Amino acid sequence: MRALRILLVVVVILGGLFVIVDRVAVNFAEGEAADRLKATENLTSTPDVSIKGFPFLTQVAGGTLDDIEVGIQDYEATTGDGGQKIRIADLHADMKGVEFSGNFSSATAATATGTATVAYDELLKTARSEPQRVAPGVTANVVGLSDGGNGKIKVEVEATVLGTKLPEPVFVLSSVTVVDGHTVRVKADALPKFGGMTIAESRVRQITDFEQKIEGLPGGIRLDKVEASKAGVGITVEGSDVRLAG
């Protein structure tokens, strides 16, 4: 019995040491992965990297990590318009089946899903913020975007008719969709009226409708779905063979 108790104590101690070593190793790996991702994506701040699953060391031995969560704040994506950028307030991605090299210099996820948020003031930069002529004597421009409820964007439009600015802005509910995996499209569900004047639909939609490309996301992930919310435009992203480093 005494020998059995000693054996049990040894097993418990070794098990505890293994857990400690495993956690130290995973913390080191998370730091290395974060630094590599920062360098690869030219980030201004170090991202949050969390390696899931236990034990970590057995995953390392197999050369594949089951699940890695990545969080990036204030990511600047490209827009396809020269050097113009659009800021993503927060980007969170869940990477599955991550294969890596021995020194973590390269890592590729089999699949990735996640979420991102673009603030309304960022999206407003794409809209017609300068007054545009939509009919003889009538100009209009978008001055605000906000949550319209039920996944819609509320577009605020100011108009001037025959030299007189309308006393109240016109509000339009718009649907927001993803086009070709890289573009957010905002399209009015119904056209606004400006001082009771009849204006061609195509001219009005030049003001109310617009598109914003969002490209160059980490590892080549793409836009999947989009929906308006109080915080901004919430975007679901996805990808396969997503490169995290190297």
Task: Describe this entry's structure for a reader.
The chain has 246 residues and is an alpha+beta fold. It has two domains: 2-117; 122-213. Helices cover 24% and strands 47% of the residues. It is built from four helices and 13 strands. The strands form two sheets. Strands 5, 6, 7, 8, 9, 10 and 11 form a seven-stranded antiparallel β-sheet that branches. It has a six-stranded antiparallel β-sheet with strand order 1-2-3-4-13-12. It is elongated, with a radius of gyration of 25 Å. Residues 2-18 have low confidence and may be disordered.
Features:
six-stranded antiparallel β-sheet, disordered N terminus, DUF2993 domain-containing protein, single chain, 2 domains, elongated, alpha+beta, 246 residues, 47% strand, seven-stranded antiparallel β-sheet
What's a quick, concise take on this entry?
With 246 residues, the chain is α+β, with helices and mostly antiparallel strands. It has four helices and 13 strands. It has two domains: 2-117; 122-213.
- Helix/strand-derived category reads alpha+beta
The fraction of residues assigned to DSSP E strands is: over 45%
Q: How many domain regions? A: 2
- Describe the sheet with the most strands: 7 strands, antiparallel
Helix content: 10-25%
Q: What's the total number of strands? A: 13
Rg (CA only): 25 Å
Element-level helix/strand string: HEHEEEHEEEEEEHEEE
CA(first)-CA(last) distance:
55 Å
Quote the average pLDDT. 81
What overall form do the CA principal axes indicate? elongated
Weakly predicted, low-confidence segments: 2-18
- Determine the number of helices (DSSP H or I, runs of at least 4 residues): 4
Oligomerization state of this entry?
single chain
